[in-house]
Specification:
With about 140 residues, the chain is of the alpha+beta class. It has one domain. Helix content is about 25%, strand content about 20%.
């Protein structure tokens, strides 16, 4: 069974804040050596004012050295199953533009299992390793 965390985060400002803190704490579990070596900065995007916060992004980070970013979009759970999607994107131009930022986007309902998948994607991305995206139908 899935253990959803802060499932009312869009309705409850205290849960929203706790959710943001949770993602920041997860970020600290990623190799400090990799974060330092590649100059990762967190947050990448400044948080929106409380009345506009919609979970996009709930967390962000950026490495100017790698020209890579991470953006986590959190949504409320809609089922008792794992809800997570991830895809590559670009910011500041098309993905073919060498000046654009290559972005790892993770969209999920925050849960114990979603966190495991997110960390499995974020750790190699932060370390400048490639990650594989496979299409999977539910």
């Amino acid at each position: 069974m899935i253990d959803h965390l802060y499932s009312d985060f869009l309705k409850d400002p205290s849960q929203y804040s706790l959710s943001q803190s949770y993602w920041r704490e997860l970020w600290q579990k990623i190799s400090d050596q990799d974060r330092s070596r590649f100059g990762w900065q967190q947050p990448w995007f400044q948080p929106l004012p409380p009345k506009l916060e919609q979970g996009n992004p709930i967390f962000s980070a950026f490495s100017p050295l790698l020209r890579r970013g991470i953006r986590v979009i959190q949504h409320e759970p809609t089922s008792q199953t794992l809800e997570i999607q991830a895809w590559p994107d670009s910011f500041g131009g098309p993905i073919t533009d060498p000046e654009s930022i290559k972005e790892l986007v993770i969209a999920c309902a925050l849960s114990d299992l979603a966190v495991e998948v997110a960390m499995d994607l974020m750790q190699p991305w932060v370390a400048n390793r490639s990650i594989a995206f496979r299409a999977q139908e539910s």
